[in-house]
Design a protein that fits this description.
This protein has 324 residues and is mainly α. It is built from 14 helices and no strands. It has 2 domains: 120 residues, no CATH class; 144 residues, no CATH class. It is globular, with a radius of gyration of 21 Å.
Length: 324
């Protein structure tokens, strides 16, 4: 007797993971950083989280209503992640009303205008933050100390701001690595504590939710670039470990640059993408006009992802190369 085979369209290999499962794991990985934000910045952080997440969900629901799509997609968790990440990249003193505007931009312009989940070119949370940084620069650069610090707000600065504009190395006021690691510093509410971000990132790597090459490439590139300058002139440049722990490097490397929609699909392209983000971050931090460069680095490399996917891909089985 002949055997019967069922032939279906590709993909023939199906993963057990679904979009909601992946998104829910990312949400879970962000919980330690959110709890740290609530501990260090208390009700200010809570207000930003609630405003950003609620506005992201409402904006996405509005677009679903206009485009006559089912509201069940709200449960996939993508809008919640966008709201959480946007809130985590805002100063604790940032007005809640302006944060809501950033959330509308994140979902409306950063995601839905491209067609929704899976079609956006740029990371939605970073699109919203970039808009807020351009529209409200003063509010985006007004910092307050944590609830565990006794520092005057008038003289307060973030570790990267102190390094950039106040010559902290020469004055001996560089933020300690211990404070950077535990989070007893000022900055955006979800970027201050390196240890909780590492816990969340390691969890995503363990569950194979993100591509390990992206955080590895970003960390490697930034370490080599800043480390070379530090070895040449340690009295002028901070150590690579300082750059890894300070600012938004860890949240960008583990939670934003790894976005499956806006990152490359092939291994060579992924390495180019990750190494480019780390290099651009170092260039902006050390030689640019801003103390931080993670946001612009990721957005810029997001723009190159379609080109990387197009020109850096494996040869199709049976395809012949063109004769020279």
């Amino acid at each position: 007797m002949s055997k019967a085979f069922l032939v279906e369209s590709s993909p023939h290999l199906r993963e057990k993971d679904t979009t909601p499962r992946i998104m829910h794991r990312v949400v879970l990985s962000l919980v330690p950083a959110c709890l740290a934000a609530l501990y260090f910045f208390r009700f200010r952080a809570l207000a930003l989280f609630l405003a950003c997440v609620a506005t992201c969900l409402a904006t996405e629901a509005l677009f679903f209503w206009v485009r006559k799509k089912p509201y069940s997609s709200l449960l996939d968790g993508s809008a919640i992640i966008t709201g959480m990440l946007l809130a985590m990249t805002l100063p604790p003193s940032f007005p809640v009303s302006l944060a809501a505007i950033g959330a509308v931009v994140s979902i409306g312009i950063g995601k839905q205008i491209f067609g929704g989940l899976g079609h956006n070119i740029f990371n939605p949370a970073l699109v919203g933050r970039a808009f807020l940084a351009a529209a409200f620069p003063v509010a985006m650069t007004t910092w307050i100390p944590t609830a565990t610090m006794k520092v005057d707000i008038a003289t307060f600065a973030t570790p990267l701001g102190n390094l950039k504009f106040q010559n902290a190395i020469a004055q001996g006021t560089l933020t300690s690595l211990k404070d950077l690691f535990w989070g007893n510093i000022g900055g955006c509410i979800g970027e201050t504590s390196a240890v909780v971000l590492l816990i969340g990132g390691i969890y995503l790597l363990y569950r194979r939710t993100i591509d390990w090459r992206i955080p590895a490439g970003i960390i490697l590139s930034l370490t080599v670039f800043t480390g070379a300058l530090w070895l040449v002139n340690p009295g002028k440049y901070a150590s690579p470990l300082f750059h890894l722990l300070a600012g938004g490097l860890l949240i960008g490397a583990f939670f934003m640059a790894t976005d499956m929609v806006t990152s490359p699909v092939t291994r060579p392209a992924t390495w180019i993408y990750a190494l480019g983000i780390g290099l651009l971050t170092g260039l902006i931090r050390l030689f640019g006009g801003y103390p931080e460069g993670v946001m612009y680095s990721i957005l810029l490399m997001n723009a190159f992802v379609p080109l990387l996917n197009r020109y850096i891909r494996p040869r199709i089985l049976g395809q012949r190369r063109k004769a020279p």
